[in-house]
Specification:
about 130 residues; alpha+beta; 6-stranded antiparallel β-sheet; 6 strands
Length: about 130
């Protein structure tokens, strides 16, 4: 029954590993909690992913969508930066993200695609110059 339930679901949000994290000796490389690249806590990414979906909604008004996590202090915004385009039989859309995380401020440009269930998944994200 669990297999049938889980098998019918599709999540675009990565889940943290169930195993113990590998500790590195220098502490210079942390875990990546999101497909956006910068280190994010899982709850930060959960909140950010919801804002990204609203920002990329074709019915939206194109205004930036804010998100924040009062527990970690992380916050940011997403805005669509172009028209939807087809890619590999799905619809994609470019976006810009500005985020303030524990590691500092990050400005990204990327694209995300929506699947048939309506879930957005980040296809690419790379640093951009903040305007």
């Amino acid at each position: 029954m669990v297999a049938a339930f889980v098998g019918g679901c599709s999540l675009a949000i990565p889940l943290p590993s169930l195993s113990a994290p590998d500790e590195d000796a220098t502490g210079s490389i942390g875990k990546t909690g999101s497909p956006l690249g910068p280190v994010m806590e899982p709850e930060d990414w959960r909140r950010a992913a919801a804002a990204l979906a609203v920002a990329l909604d074709p019915q939206g008004n194109g205004a930036p969508v804010q998100w924040s996590n009062p527990i970690s202090g992380a916050k940011g915004s997403f805005v669509q930066t172009g028209r939807p385009f087809p890619s590999d039989a799905v619809v994609c859309r470019p976006f810009a993200a500005d985020m303030a995380l524990r590691g500092g401020e990050h400005a990204l440009a990327g694209s995300a695609c929506v699947d048939k269930s309506g879930d957005w998944a980040v296809r690419e994200a790379k640093p951009r110059k903040k305007t």
